Beta-hydroxyacyl-ACP dehydratase (Caldisericum exile), 148 residues
Amino acid sequence: MAYLKIAGEEIKDYLPHREPFLFVDRIEIPVEKIVVGFKTFSSDEPFFKAYLPQESFLPGALIIEACAQVSAFILLAYKNFKDSFGYLVHIENFNFLKKVKPGETLKVISKFMGLRFGIARSRVEAYVNEKLVASGIVSIKIVPHKEV
């Protein structure tokens, strides 16, 4: 697979998610089986106002969701899954090391581990300013568009 970049509205061609639950601004696929995604979280995001507003940081569940959304793009590497969406079905060994605050850009690196029974597993690492903030494994179920 050649180097690929996807950004802006084109992201919505590949993910069923929409604002305010779309956690990918830009995708880069530098080599086969690796996807890198970016999301800048503005201070206007609704969850910053509702989740511990006195401290304002991104809930861990949303970091996991961002990792899952980025990981779903690994499906682009497989021609037989071009007309499919990916949904988070399982997480393993997630660790949260640092907080993600308003205005910061989350960089997610997803490394494809394998595909079995229509479920893709990826090891993910999330960074802010090149510092690891979270890591774990996500499993994505592949579902054809027509079943969505």
The chain has a mean pLDDT of 90.
